[in-house]
Amino acid sequence: MKKKKATKKDKEFVFKITLDLDSPMMWSGKINPKIRKSKKAVWREVAMLSNQTLYGFAESIIDILDFSFDHCFGFFSNLSERSMYDSKEIYELFTDLKDEGVEYTPNAKGVKKVKISQVFKQIGKKMLFYFDYGDSWSFLVELKEIKTSDLKKTYPYLLASQGKNPEQYPLFEEEE
Question: ∠ CA 139-15-51 to the nearest 5 degrees?
Fold first, then answer.
């Protein structure tokens, strides 16, 4: 993850990123049953710069979870994994890769040029961040605050957290 110094015109956007325990994949028995059983949401609060791209935002989310940034992803305005493709707003890495012969979602915008401030315009806006279309990691992303950036800090940076990082590739665990 590339760290960046703020400029005078940058704003600091504070996001809460929460692992979606209601995601269908969380109930398949494959992914971290201990987290599911605890019923305690795993979340991270992170400060980003307004001019960082959605690609950089995704990279930061994955980095703070200690995952490998090795899969495609998207941001969706519908917060349910079951209806994410019916979203009015879709931003996917696939769109940026369409010149490489990759299938992409019609009407989706890319993530490599779209800035955080173009998508998250008001406090309280939520989107589904969907990572790894095979293992289906779903996170709810909410803009909590917009404020003047701190010129002494490098962004992004972690503000607060709850719960242990889930294992990206856990061994299959049977329910007890």
Answer: 110
Return the SS3 of 84: helix
Q: How far apart are CA 31 and CA 63, in angstroms?
A: 19
pLDDT one-digit tens code per residue, 126-152: 999 999 887 788 999 999 999 999 999
> What pLDDT, in 10s, does the model give residues 12-42?
999 999 998 776 555 555 556 666 676 678 8
Q: pTM value?
A: 0.88
Where residue 22 falls (left for φ over 0; alpha for ψ -120 to 50; beta otherwise) is: alpha
What's the first-to-final CA gap in the chain, in angstroms? 37
Tens digits of per-residue pLDDT, 54-64?
999 999 999 99
Distance CA 120, CA 50 (A): 9
Say which CATH topology domain 12-162 has: 3.10.290
- Are 22 and 35 in contact, with CB atoms under 8 Å apart? no
